[in-house]
Design goal:
The complex is a heterodimer.
Chain A lengths: L11 H29 L1 H16 L2 H16 L2 H16 L3 H31 L1 H16 L2 H12 L3 H25 L3 H9 L4 H12 L1 H17 L1 H5 L7 H10 L2 H23 L3
Helix pairs in contact in A: 1-7, 2-5, 3-4, 4-14, 5-6, 5-8, 5-11, 6-8, 7-8, 8-11, 9-10, 11-14, 13-14
Chain B lengths: L1 H21 L5 E6 L3 H17 L3 E6 L2 H11 L4 E5 L1 H4 L1 H9 L3 E3 L10 E6 L2 H5 L6 H5 L14 E4 L6 H12 L7 E4 L4 H14 L4 E6 L2 H5 L3 E2 L9 H7 L18 E5 H6 L2 H9 L4 H14 L3 H11 L9 H7 L1
Parallel strand pairs in B: 1-2, 6-7
Antiparallel strand pairs in B: 3-10, 4-10, 5-8, 5-9
Classes of the chains: A mainly alpha, B alpha/beta.
């Protein structure tokens, strides 16, 4: 064999052994710890069932009023309020109300989970460069690894449904908020922090009263990106049995129903635009 | 002047194309690269025979049932799809494509044997409850198959959204009055996710009840047991209703006979290599052989082309599909 012309490969048997040992160890892990890992996520499941129940079973005029109220409270933007009323009429008329509510509850859950995980990690990353250098490549992996590579193992651990859906969405959506929290905190002027230190402020006081407020814009941009990415995962999530707007899209793609795909797609895009505007324009 | 040049060029290209296509040597063949086990093995066997045996130049165009089918109908690309399940592509679309002369069935009937769709259980439940071999017996015990979202109900795993079997399952669900018997459907979203639910049930020793088809790696590997429907096939009229989303009054029935076809675009049927077409007409892989190939693939995490080589090395049946000349080259 000429090693110069052909790359020296491992033998097929060795490669097979490596692949199989990964499989076996994952299966053993799933068998012995699967049940206890599921228990950790019970609170999340409970929270999601509750949000979903509230959104789906509430009378629609009430939900609409609540939405517009929340949007107006955060943005004071009358045009956006009018637009979201039109959007909700659109999804209602086309029979996508319930699916949209399922999707919204999923996006809310994964958004909150991402913020709860992402901001603390972002803060930790901004403290030392070594942590930053360790976490950055992990974030790269999370953003680029083909989704099905972890989607199916997640199903084997958690079964079908909301929990694996939220986990997959969060893996994909959490990196921007981590990155932008880190970036925002690192851009706070050293002078401000030195001044605060010289006044005898404690580190957590500096963080809470100076650094976080000054990097608010960057963090909000991260939250915005995170939300957009979790919405873009809606269709993929429906491939592991998550209810919502992804299901009519999959159905449409599978049957070449171009019209119904367009309508369900528009509902997803509309939701994304509204959430994007709300987060960006929060006063 | 410019225009004549273009016309000339176009004519030359057309002539060239026709002459290579109608020539005796095999030329270029494009084939649908399909993802699921049996189709990927079949595709690699076809590729091996056509390339090594007949000297064709084969290109696999990655796809899936619906994308490849659509592309064949609308764009005449790829030339060949080795394993098409017309029920999965939409039987109406399929018949329309045949009638419009956009697609032709290979002269052979089914490329694989032992094709069966039905409702299966994982055998682990049979140890404690050996009586669960009929649908009736299973339907009486929803408590043994708890639904993940609502443990008070029994869970039945159906097909992904958009597939033909999802609609048929939903109508049969109503026909057998399963909701009143304490059952609820589990929607897996994709075939890969459905497979993962089976692996999970197997690894954890949990019960599994749902739709599945054969020949597949999982039926062989986990020894999934098909349930006896306990009723006769309820007639074609009833089945036609069962395949429609808004069937008003579905009646209990066993599953319709499933069928699989190898299909060509009309262009390939008319101008493609006759030798290749007669190979496609002759090659039938019996169900048990396909199951053992799938088992080999799964046991060794082998790539489909390795399985194709294994098939040619270890089986003899392919020699009957090709001329002696081609068989000699393959050997």
């Amino acid at each position: 064999m000429n090693y110069f012309l052909e790359f020296p490969e491992l033998s097929k048997g060795v490669i097979r052994a490596i692949k199989k040992s990964i499989d076996t160890s994952f299966r053993e892990f799933s068998r012995s710890y699967g049940d206890s890992i599921e228990v950790i996520f019970y609170p999340l499941k409970f929270f999601m069932n509750w949000v979903e129940f509230a959104l789906v079973s509430a009378p629609w005029p009430l939900t609409m009023l609540l939405f517009v109220g929340v949007i107006f409270y955060f943005t004071r933007d009358k045009i956006l309020c009018a637009g979201s009323i039109l959007y909700m009429l659109f999804i209602g008329v086309f029979g996508l109300w319930e699916d949209t509510m399922y999707t919204l509850s999923l996006v809310i859950a994964s958004g909150l989970l991402s913020v709860a995980i992402g901001i603390p990690i972002g803060i930790w990353m901004s403290r030392t460069t070594r942590v930053q250098n360790t976490i950055n490549p992990i974030l790269d992996v999370m953003q680029t690894i083909p989704i099905f590579v972890y989607l199916i193992p997640v199903v084997m651990l958690f079964g079908l449904g909301k929990i694996p859906g939220v986990i997959a969405m969060t893996i994909y959506a959490v990196p921007p908020i981590i990155r932008l929290t880190n970036l925002g905190l690192r851009q706070v002027g050293i002078g401000m922090i030195e001044a605060a230190m010289s006044m005898g402020m404690k580190p957590w006081q500096i963080l809470w009263t100076i650094e976080l407020p000054l990097s608010k814009k960057s963090i909000l941009a991260g939250a915005n990106q995170t939300t957009m990415m979790s919405i873009s995962m809606v269709v993929i999530a429906s491939m592991i049995g998550v209810q919502g707007l992804g299901v009519p899209v999959l159905q449409a793609v599978q049957n070449q129903y171009i019209g119904s795909g367009l309508i369900a797609g528009t509902a997803i895009v509309g939701l994304a635009i509204i959430l994007d505007r709300v987060i960006q324009n929060t006063k | 002047m410019k225009k004549t040049l273009v016309t000339f060029a176009a004519a030359a290209v057309t002539l060239g194309f026709v002459s290579t296509a109608s020539a005796d040597d095999c030329g270029d063949v494009t084939m649908a690269g399909l993802g699921w086990g049996s189709a990927s093995i079949l595709g690699e066997i076809d590729k091996l025979v056509l390339e090594e045996g007949m000297g064709c130049s084969v290109t696999m165009i990655p796809g899936g049932t619906v994308p490849s089918f659509t592309s064949m109908v609308e764009q005449s690309q790829p030339d060949v799809m080795g394993e098409l399940w017309p029920n999965a592509a939409g039987i109406d679309l399929y018949n329309a494509a045949l009638e419009d002369g956009r697609m032709t069935e290979s002269a052979g009937q089914s490329p694989i044997g032992g094709v069966a769709e039905g409702w299966y259980v994982h055998p682990n439940i049979l140890e404690a409850h050996p009586e669960l071999t009929t649908l009736e017996a299973v339907l009486a015990r929803p408590d043994l198959f708890p639904h993940p979202d609502d443990a008070s109900k029994g869970g039945f795993v159906t097909c992904p959204p958009g597939s033909g079997c999802q609609i048929s399952n939903a109508n049969l669900f109503n026909a057998f009055d399963m909701e009143a018997k304490g059952w609820k459907m589990i929607e897996p979203g994709s075939y890969a996710a459905e497979d993962a639910t089976i692996s999970r049930a197997h690894d954890r020793g949990e019960a599994w009840f749902g739709y599945y088809s054969a020949p597949t790696a999982f039926v062989g590997k986990y020894d999934l047991r098909v349930l006896d429907w306990g009723v006769e096939f309820g007639g074609q009229e009833n089945w036609n209703c069962i395949t429609k989303p808004d069937c008003p009054n579905p009646q209990p029935s066993s599953w319709t006979g499933s069928f699989v076809r190898t299909v060509f675009t009309d262009e390939f049927a008319a101008t493609g290599s006759a030798e290749a077409q007669s190979y496609f007409a002759a090659r039938v892989i019996p169900g048990p052989v396909m199951n053992s190939l799938l088992g080999y693939m799964d046991d060794n995490q082998a790539a489909p082309d390795e399985v194709a080589e294994y098939f040619v090395e270890n089986y003899d049946m392919w020699k009957a599909w090709v001329s002696e000349d081609v068989a000699a080259k393959l050997n």
